[in-house]
Specification:
This protein is of the alpha+beta class. It is built from three helices and 17 strands. The longest helix has 20 residues.
Length: about 260
């Protein structure tokens, strides 16, 4: 007669499954603690210590980490984290989006022909650099527009606020945009625009493509100081960089997100 098989405590899988969970759990701490609070990258030793301690190995003794009276050699942790790093690289290499990107309004994708009004405002200063010279510095801007099905959006009016030097902005046509992931995991909003800046008796036209990175967590689009791939703004043949950020808000209550349909 066979002896009954020993049961594992509930919630504590073993074997390959446990190893898989360990790798997933370790990857969270690996990503969280590979960078210090000041933005600098940790040394390998620091990453091993911080990750292992995050997994519960709470004290260190002569090349071992101890948890609940058990010991784990640091070389085993190094092997585990090497596997984690490889897994992270493999997962990170795969595009996160394969289908068409679209706007979600209150959790539902907009269909073609559907739209929702939005108000748009900057969430920080805005700089306009022309030919590597900061020509205009603004406290921000306010705008109105709409998001539409198939990941399209447009700005129909825009005003820059408290700019130095002061100028008048002429928007001859709406700024039109569409969502893109450019084959990667980030979501970008590619804006086609023609702006005319009138300062004193002179006019300066800025036109081309402006790429911004969309942040679902904050309903925000960010334009970094280093232009993203796809930027092609020009003014009289000189390169133009617009940097800052803008926050979208649905007219009335609701949530706005971007995602793969």
């Amino acid at each position: 007669m066979r002896a009954p098989r020993a049961r594992r405590p509930a919630g504590r899988p073993g074997g390959l499954l446990r190893a898989t969970l360990d790798v997933r759990e370790a990857s969270v701490y690996f990503n969280r603690w590979s960078v210090r609070d000041d933005g600098r990258i940790c040394s390998l030793s620091e990453i091993l210590d911080r990750t292992a301690i995050g997994l519960g190995w709470t004290s260190r003794r002569a090349g071992h980490l101890v948890m609940e009276g058990r010991e784990m050699k640091l070389v085993r942790i190094a092997g585990l984290l090497a596997a984690v790093a490889l897994a992270v690289m493999v997962v990170g290499a795969a595009p996160a989006f394969a289908g068409e990107l679209n706007w979600l309004v209150n959790g539902k994708f907009l269909k073609e022909g559907e739209s929702a009004k939005v108000s748009i405002s900057s969430s920080g200063p805005l700089d306009i650099v022309i030919g590597h010279v900061v020509y205009y510095e603004c406290e921000g801007f306010i705008a109105e527009g709409r998001v539409t099905g198939r990941g399209r959006d447009e700005i129909t009016s825009i005003d820059f606020v408290e700019c130095d030097p002061d100028f008048a902005l002429i928007l001859r046509d709406p700024i039109t945009s569409h969502l893109s992931n450019e084959g990667g995991a980030s979501i970008f909003d590619l804006n086609s625009l023609v702006l005319t800046i009138k300062e004193g008796g002179e006019e300066r036209t800025i036109e081309g493509e402006l790429a911004g990175e969309w942040k679902n967590s904050t309903d925000e689009e960010v334009f970094p100081k280093t232009p993203l791939e796809g930027d092609s703004l020009k003014s009289a043949g000189e390169e133009v960089v617009i940097s800052g950020s803008e926050k979208f808000k649905l007219e009335g209550a609701g949530t706005l997100r971007a995602g793969e349909e």
